[in-house]
Design goal:
Chain lengths: 311, 428
């Protein structure tokens, strides 16, 4: 009789997408305990980090930190600290302070006037984490300019994956697979039937075709950029990426895939590299020795143009 | 596109009739055997013409006629209504081919009628049905069945005595969406059913234009207690029928409150009703209907320990959210010892396309319609087969009794139990 792996799973919706949690080859009570605890934590993080919820921690921070210093702790403080590091490490291309620009373009797009307008004067101030004062001693945050508004959407899933990974190891579980919507993934240990977790990046416009194969062991992957989901009904592109240096939407027909040991970093990098000019992006990824970047480009007919490895 | 939908529906009916013949659905939906393409249907040749009369040509009668004229080899040979404008309008729909009557007894003297479709006001259902059955005709009678329990019993008795089909117009029994939902409930997809909620909310006076004041009660009969049981017979009966069907049971008892709290315009039926039905096993149906707010619309919600079904919107919500399709494949592979690539990709998190768990659709969206057309095809088939449709009258009877009991509970402000000894099968 062949021995097949035991597997336990849980699915939930959080942070704007579906999270699937799989753990393998462990006792049922360990799996249940991990999955129960994770579910509770994810929902809490979702609530705390949702800037669209009026009673979330991030909303409180965004509403008050421009006038007064706000004391932060726990997950928010950790995220702010990591984001500040990554902001400087990516030369500002990962920038979680541009929520106002995102909202502005989203509103213009809903009115179908995106191509007709420029940023209003009150939003022309380029903002960044350098305008966010954070005191590690006092655990205080202060925004230097009212344009600064935090949105951890580009990093929160990766950050949550890293926390889940730490947690699952504490339960003594060594084989696990966590996926946020198939675009932010952590693969712990190996596939129960192989030496790694085999993944295939699907063609953005033909999901039955794959454009890149990956073999993950104790590693993460983050996918950012162009996909069929970014096309609106009239075939125009949905602006979900904003150039943090200019405040204007990024027009791209490319995807960036980043793999590496830490999901938080992979998430920040995939967002930074899709908005940075190619030359600068190549220089940036070279600074992250443990990470690999794949550049997948489609032509304007949505046919695959090329797949490049940048490191 | 239309052909594809019709083909889908045909395939669906054929599949259902096979299931029914094979016993898979025999316990829950025996009425679909009327579509079975088996040896016993030799005498039910689709080419055989069926001659129908329509008794009651108001809005519902016209609605049904619009389906009847689309059924091949069906002739509407007679029409009857004592309100001339309705009769004239219906006559035009038949191309002036039907024979008009203002008195149903005169119509029943015609020799060349096979069946009657009754869409008269509720208080006339019993008398009209019994007269038609006694004339040797098959009867399709709009819901609800009748005003009183005695009338319902007499209708059943007459149908059994004459061996004719008596079908009450609960179209959800033929609605592909409902059929698949009930099938999934019976298979255990939502686990053990423990509670049901149903509601029908509208914000209008439910009135029709009256050309002369003396026609008020004739035209707006739904608003008067001597002619109708109001929201209960016109709306709730559909939803109680669904609850019975889902549970395979009838209520043990009911309590409720009804009142006229908004439309104080001379009507004598409640403009809002609120009831609690007790089913076997401690299962409850919470029901309400109102006429002064439409925010929540209408819905039947069936809750089990593994999931929830919303039958009007046709959605099922698992208690445990199912894995994404690719993850489902990964789980399958791991369980089978298969090592193959998992497709990934898709958009990053962008707040403007944020998603939440919205359940899954119960049925294939290609299959359209609410069952109104299929139930009439079933009626025509039963005439060709010259036999009652199995189980269909029981559903109509069991859906109507709780409605009448609910009215009693609200009017007397007390719990009302299902009458001892009242059983469809024991009526002879």
């Amino acid at each position: 009789m062949p021995h097949f792996a035991t597997i336990y799973h849980r699915s939930l919706f959080a942070m704007g997408t579906q999270l699937d949690l799989l753990v393998c080859n462990c006792a049922k009570n360990e799996a249940d305990a991990f999955l129960d605890q994770s579910e509770q934590q994810i929902y809490k993080w979702h609530q705390d980090l949702n800037r669209f919820a009026s009673d979330s921690l991030i909303t409180f921070l965004n509403n008050n930190a421009v006038l007064n210093s706000v004391i932060v702790n726990g997950e928010i403080e950790h995220l702010i600290a990591r984001s500040k590091e990554l902001y400087f490490q990516t030369n500002g291309y990962f920038n979680p302070t541009i929520a106002r620009w995102v909202d502005f373009w989203k509103e213009r797009q809903s009115l179908n006037t995106a191509g007709l307008v420029s940023l209003p004067d009150e939003l022309k101030q380029v903002c960044g984490m350098n305008q966010l004062d954070y005191s590690t001693e006092l655990h205080e945050v202060h925004f230097q300019h009212p344009t600064v508004q935090l949105d951890f959407g580009a990093i929160a899933k990766g950050w949550a994956l890293d926390r889940l990974c730490e947690q699952v190891k504490r339960f003594g579980i060594n084989q696990a697979f966590f996926s946020f919507g198939g675009s932010s993934i952590t693969a712990l240990g190996t596939h129960p039937s192989g030496a790694y977790w085999p993944l295939a990046i699907a063609h953005a416009f033909n999901s039955s075709e794959s454009v890149l194969n990956l073999a993950l062991t104790d590693a993460c992957v983050s996918v950012s950029g162009y996909s069929a989901n970014n096309l609106r009904a009239n075939n125009s592109k949905r602006f979900h990426l904003i150039n943090p240096k200019t405040g204007y939407p990024v027009e791209t027909t490319a995807q960036i895939v980043v793999t590496g040991p830490e999901a938080t970093v992979a998430e920040a990098l995939s967002t930074a590299l899709i908005t940075a000019p190619e030359q600068e992006a190549r220089q940036l990824i070279a600074l992250f020795k443990d990470y690999s970047c794949y550049y997948i480009c489609y032509d304007y007919n949505n046919h695959l143009n090329k797949v490049d490895k940048w490191q | 596109m239309i052909e594809e939908k019709i083909r889908s529906r045909r395939d669906f009916l054929r599949q259902l009739s096979v299931y029914t013949a094979g016993g898979v659905l025999a316990g829950t939906m025996p009425w679909f055997s009327v579509f079975a393409d088996d040896a016993s249907s030799e005498k039910a040749s689709p080419s055989e013409r069926v001659r129908l009369a329509v008794l009651g040509t108001g809005s519902r009668g016209m609605y049904l006629m619009n389906y009847l004229i689309q059924i091949p080899n069906v002739d509407i040979v007679a029409l009857c209504d004592d309100y001339q404008p309705n009769l004239t309008r219906a006559l035009v729909l038949t191309g002036n081919k039907a024979k008009p009557f203002s008195n149903h007894k005169a119509m029943l003297e015609m020799k060349d009628i096979d069946g009657v479709v009754i869409a008269t006001p509720l208080y006339l259902h019993a008398q009209h049905t019994i007269d038609c059955l006694q004339a040797g005709l098959h009867v399709f009678c709009e819901k609800s069945m009748a005003m009183t329990i005695d009338e319902c019993v007499n209708m059943v008795r007459e149908s059994k005595k004459n061996g004719k089909n008596l079908q009450i117009g609960h179209q959800r029994l033929f609605d592909p969406k409902y059929i698949q939902a009930i099938e999934r409930i019976k298979k255990g997809d939502i686990g053990q059913v423990t509670q049901l909620k149903a509601y029908w909310h509208r914000n209008n006076d439910w009135r029709r234009l009256v050309p002369k004041p003396d026609l008020e009660k004739k035209i707006n009969w739904r608003l008067y207690r001597e002619y109708s049981l109001g929201l209960m017979t016109e709306l709730a009966s559909h939803q109680v029928q669904v609850a019975n069907w889902a549970l395979g049971a009838t209520p043990l008892a009911v309590a409720g409150i009804g009142s006229i709290n908004y439309w104080k315009d001379g009507r004598t039926v409640y403009d809002n009703v609120n009831l609690l039905y007790e089913y076997p096993g401690g299962i409850t149906l919470m029901y309400d209907s109102m006429s002064s707010n439409r925010k929540f619309g209408l819905e039947e919600i069936i809750m089990g320990d593994k999931g929830t079904m919303e039958l009007e919107t046709g959605k099922v919500f698992a208690e445990q959210i199912p894995p994404a399709p690719a993850i489902r494949q990964l789980i399958h592979d791991i369980e089978k010892g298969v090592f193959s690539s998992l497709p990934i990709g898709g958009p990053s998190w962008v707040p403007e396309v944020a998603v939440d768990y919205e359940g899954e659709y119960i049925t294939d969206e290609k299959i359209v319609g609410d069952g109104s057309d299929i139930q009439l095809e079933a009626f025509v088939n039963s005439i060709r087969r010259q036999a009652p449709i199995e189980g269909i009258l029981r559903e109509g009877f069991n859906a109507t009794i709780p409605i009448i009991l609910g009215i009693q509970a609200m009017e007397n402000k007390q719990w009302v139990s299902w009458p001892e000894g009242l059983n469809f099968d024991s009526i002879v």
